Every structure is written in structure tokens, then in C-alpha cells.
């Protein structure tokens, strides 16, 4: 299963940019023992990298009871992060400091969804 953005995905993400801030939806499914690795990744981002790019975590929580989901569709965690723009997000993932810790995320996850959101009514 895919857990990291690809070059083609990033190109499409930038090409479909409606402008303005973007809130990234992260749905996370951890590998056995992956929470510790993800915590290390999260600490590195929250201590310096997110601030450098003007990003903020809006919500981070554990998955709980799935009221409507097929078997295997429940997620271990949900994360919402606001970035000033899609371009800023793209710059952040290319930053050598981000690249140095991104492997902790990759090692932590068995599956993920990383989806840009746009406000309803904005296009």
C-alpha cells in the first residue's frame, strides 16, 4: 500500500491548486509498533519544520469506533494540517530537513491517505 506522495501526485496536486490555504487530511494505519516511529517523525516536524513553513496541526486523534465502515476500513489515526498554500507544502516535502525525518513516517505506516481539501463553495 502507498504511504508516501509521489512526484506525479505532487504535480497533479499543484496543477489543481485553487489558490489559498490547504488543509491536508491524513488517514493513518500503523504497522505493528509503528506508533513510536510516527511519534518521532511528528516531534521533528512540530519542533521546527511546520513552524518554518507556517503550517499548523488543526487536529490529531486516534481512530475510535467506526459507525459506518466496511471491515478493515477503520483508521488508527486522523490528522488535519493547515498549510498556507499547496506550494508551501510542496516546498516543505522537498526540504532536506524534512527528507531527513520522512523515513520515520514511511517506516511507521502500513497504509495512508493524504488528501488535500478545499472549503465547500470555493470551487
Strand content: 25-35%
Main beta sheet: 4 strands, antiparallel
List the strand order in the largest sheet: 2-3-1-4
Q: How many structural domains does the protein architecture include?
A: 1
Please name the CATH architecture: 2-Layer Sandwich
Q: What is the C-alpha radius of gyration, as a whole number of Å?
A: 15 Å
Helix count equals: 4
Number of strands: 4
Q: Return the average pLDDT rounded to an integer.
A: 92
What percentage of residues falls in helices of 4 or more residues?
A: 40-55%
CATH overall fold name: Alpha-Beta Plaits
What are the low-pLDDT stretches, counting only 5+ consecutive residues below 50?
none
Highest CATH level, the class:
Alpha Beta
Distance, first to last CA = 30 Å
Order of helices and strands: HEHEEHHE
Q: Overview of this structure, please?
A:
The protein has 123 residues and is an alpha+beta fold. The chain has one domain (7-65, 73-117): Alpha-Beta Plaits, CATH 3.30.70.100. The chain has four helices and four strands. It has a four-stranded antiparallel β-sheet with strand order 2-3-1-4. The longest helix is centred in the middle third of the chain and has 19 residues, at 34-52. The model has no long low-confidence stretch (mean pLDDT 92).
